[in-house]
Design goal:
single chain; alpha+beta; 5-stranded antiparallel beta sheet; disordered N terminus
Length: about 800
């Protein structure tokens, strides 16, 4: 349907041709041009109007223009310039061509025509003309509104004299460039003009003004207000910057500070981030809150150095009553904007005189409180204020603040959840690790555990386990993965190691049993590694190193399962890695482990660690190992000091990407004077002389008060070995300041069993008597057979 306009339609020749080439519309202007009445041409092919029937097809594309020879009704040929626009059909199919041309005789306006003058003066575009000396000659009403001064007051002034701003100097430099080069130039500025309180973005288009001979006689300056486009780009840029800068870590306070930093000064002059304490709501942030409520300052930022606007410091908590912007925004669940101009600020400041004083001192005039909400939970509130920027907050500012805060809220919630899980895992880890290492006669030990700086708590562990015969076991392990599951798996493996160590398994045997356990744990978790399939361990995979040191022989037996080898510093030597077969990681199943036995002089320092100590993105592992050797090489009798020095030297400044366990042990030898050994004859009748020698030895050691118990234990163990064991049989006594150990070894592999004898049984009470008289007892397998041992406490002797 054609639109009806209140002016002469016949001033233009118009025709409409459908996509089949048929004329479907023909106006009065077309009749005046060619003389054909509508009923003579409508419904007929438009090609009949062509002077030459050359089968010309309809044009292609959205628009066409050109001169065509057309046939007048009186038979003459009329050359006509045509402009054709293609118009698609309403349903997407078909269409038509609108063909127009102005009728002949249209003349340009006269010099005194008011329309010609309106081209400059009444144009809605701000335009000004400057002469060759860059002095104002003419400007239209739109430019006068921009400048805020009438033309007759500023005519003859230069732009820098009219504007008086640094941006005016930039524009004048651009005008000078156009004046000298004759080439147009575009300059974008951002400033306040006229009496505006709010800055505007302007696109200044500068073009040369030339005379008839083409000489540059001045410049024309046209200003276009592009404020909305400029602010839209600013908002997009700020959103993009916030998505990059906010949430770079999984730390709640760091994320809150990033939110505050990214909004200053782009959105606010002063920003505060206050968070709820989840512990006040049962450990989980609430969905909705009621006033009054307590918030803790997480972060703030200001355009002024030192953030002088702040009333409280980060980390401090404050109660916010109803009527405060923080409480009102959180209880309402949406953004609240207040300003001095609207009269809302004074009523909000009555609850806190200190804040009211700061508002008056710095001239804060606008406030915007945005709830920090994520996943249906209320985490806190962000308050944006302005005092340096004079413009108040707008609905666009509100949308921008809400978008940034919503994105940051998810990051804060992620960091909160991560921190909660990390604290849980760390508490579990700490509870599973030894609180203090036992003091033994075999060695002195010191340890350190550091959770990962970014990846979270893992499954690293260490332990020192006293064994029979004054021996001691040292273990360091690392479970695959991080978090609560890794810590829980670590606890199970540490318990298993202690259990296996308690039955005195050799290091390679212990790792074999531990490997079977890890395979079962992997199967329980649903991850099964095929026996013949090469690759990494399952979900519950781990590495481990297990070492047993004997202070009597001063020998150490070590086996490892995919773990870094220990570093040894012998007295007077240099640190070096102990050559121990690597062995497969725990969890592969079915692969053997190999143990190595080395002699360690008294005073040797052993360093056992997890790979988090030497692996980092900042440097290669070999460089870290060299630093470990250097730090250990400066050992000076203090294991604690050496632990700290190693961590400080080896780890990068930002901390390790994996958790770190470090165990240092200095070996101590047991003097031969504290060990006595006898070969036992096969005749039970000769047990009595052995008891007598034991009594004499205890007298020599000044342990006569332990004689009665020791004599009974020795008698029972030796008699039991003669009766049920195999020769040769050997008795050994070992003592330190608190313990006397009796050991009887033979070549039989049959393990003893504790049983309760019946009333009329003649035997079977020996081991029961030993168990009652000693602190603890047990047996261990040896390459030659077995050893039955019993420990007697000596604390009663020291009274």
């Amino acid at each position: 349907m054609s639109r009806v306009y209140p002016f002469d339609e016949a001033a233009t020749a118009r025709a409409v041709i459908d996509d089949y080439g048929t004329l479907v519309e023909w106006n009065e202007g077309a009749r005046r041009l060619l003389g054909h009445p509508p009923d003579a041409v409508l419904g007929r092919p438009a090609a009949r109007l062509l002077a030459e029937q050359d089968g010309r097809a309809l044009p292609t594309g959205p628009r066409w223009q050109g001169t065509v020879e057309l046939r007048h009704r009186d038979g003459r040929t009329v050359p006509v310039w045509l402009l054709a626009h293609h118009r698609p059909g309403h349903d997407g199919h078909g269409g038509s061509w609108l063909v127009v041309t102005p009728l002949p005789g249209t003349k340009p306006p006269a010099e005194d025509d008011p329309l010609a003058a309106a081209a400059l003066i009444q144009s809605p575009c701000a335009v000004a003309v400057y002469d060759a000396e860059l002095r104002l000659r003419r400007m239209n009403d739109a430019m006068a509104d921009v400048v805020g001064l009438p033309e007759d007051r500023v005519r003859g002034l230069r732009l820098t004299e009219i504007g008086g701003k640094p941006q005016s100097e930039d524009l004048e430099q651009g005008m000078l460039q156009v004046l000298t080069t004759g080439s147009p130039l575009d300059v974008q500025t951002y400033m306040r003009t006229g009496g505006e309180d709010r800055a505007h973005a302007w696109l200044a288009r500068i073009a040369p003004v030339k005379d008839a001979q083409g000489r540059v006689r001045g410049v024309c300056l046209a200003k276009h207000d592009v404020t909305e486009n400029y602010r839209a780009r600013q908002r997009l840029q700020l959103l993009n910057e916030a998505s990059v800068r906010v949430g770079s870590t999984l730390d709640v306070l760091r994320t809150a500070q990033e939110l505050a930093d990214v909004c200053v000064p782009a959105l606010a002059d002063f920003v505060t981030i206050d968070l709820l304490n989840p512990q006040d709501y049962g450990g989980e942030p609430p969905a909705r809150v009621t006033a009054p409520l307590t918030l803790r300052r997480a972060a703030h930022c200001s355009v002024l150095p030192g953030v002088p606007e702040a009333v409280i410091k980060p980390g401090q908590a404050e109660e916010y009553p109803a009527g405060s912007p923080q409480a009102d925004a959180l209880t309402a669940g949406h953004t609240i904007i207040a300003s001095v101009a609207a009269g809302e600020m004074p009523s909000w400041l009555t609850w806190n005189t200190a804040r009211g004083e700061q508002v008056r001192r710095f001239g804060i005039h606008s406030s915007m409180s945005v709830p920090i909400q994520a996943r249906g939970l209320t985490l806190g509130v962000a308050v944006f204020t302005r005092h340096r920027r004079p413009d108040p907050y707008t609905p666009d500012d509100r949308l921008l603040a809400e978008e940034i805060t919503t994105r940051a809220a998810v990051c804060i919630d992620n960091a909160r959840r991560y921190s909660r899980e990390r604290e849980t895992a760390l508490a579990l880890q700490r509870s599973l690790l030894p609180r203090k290492l036992p003091r033994t006669a075999a060695l002195e030990a010191s340890s350190r555990y550091l959770p990962a700086a970014r990846a979270g708590v893992g499954g690293d562990w260490f332990d020192v386990i006293p064994l029979s015969g004054m021996r001691v076991a040292m273990v360091v392990g690392d479970v695959v993965g991080h978090g609560v599951e890794a810590s829980a798996t670590m606890g199970r493996l540490r318990t298993a190691v202690r259990t296996l160590a308690d039955i005195d398994l050799a290091p390679d045997e212990l790792l074999t049993h531990l490997d079977d356990l890890v395979v079962r744990l992997s199967e329980e978790s649903g991850v099964v590694t095929s026996p013949g399939e090469a690759g990494s361990p399952g979900e519950a995979g781990a590495t481990c190193m297990y070492a047993v040191y004997d202070p009597v022989s001063r020998r150490c037996t070590v086996a490892r399962a995919g773990h870094p080898p220990p570093v040894v510093l012998r007295p007077g030597g240099v640190p070096q890695a102990l050559d121990v077969p690597a062995g497969p990681p725990l969890g592969l199943g079915g692969l053997p482990f190999e143990a190595t036995e080395v002699e360690l002089p008294e005073g040797t320092v052993l360093a056992l660690y997890t790979d988090g100590l030497v692996w980092s993105r900042e440097r290669d592992p070999e460089t870290s190992r060299q630093r470990l050797y250097e730090a250990l090489g400066t050992y000076s009798d203090s294991l604690d000091g050496t632990c700290d020095r190693i961590l400080h030297t080896v780890l990068p400044p930002g901390g390790s990407v994996d958790d770190v366990a470090l165990l240092l042990a200095r070996t101590q030898g047991l003097p031969s004077a504290q060990v006595a050994t006898w070969d036992i004859p096969a005749d039970p009748a000769l047990v009595s002389p052995i008891r007598k020698q034991v009594v004499e030895q205890l007298d020599t050691w000044a342990l006569s008060e332990a004689t009665f118990t020791a004599e009974l234990v020795v008698s029972e163990l030796v008699t039991n070995a003669i009766r049920y064991g195999s020769h040769p049989i050997r008795l050994r006594l070992i003592h330190d300041t608190s313990t006397l150990i009796c050991e009887v070894s033979d070549t039989s592999h049959t393990a003893p069993h504790l049983r309760r004898a019946k009333v009329f049984d003649e035997g079977g009470r020996g081991l029961l008597l030993v168990a009652q008289l000693t602190q603890r007892w047990g047996s261990r397998h040896t390459p030659e057979g077995k050893t039955i041992w019993a420990e007697l406490p000596l604390y009663e002797v020291d009274r």
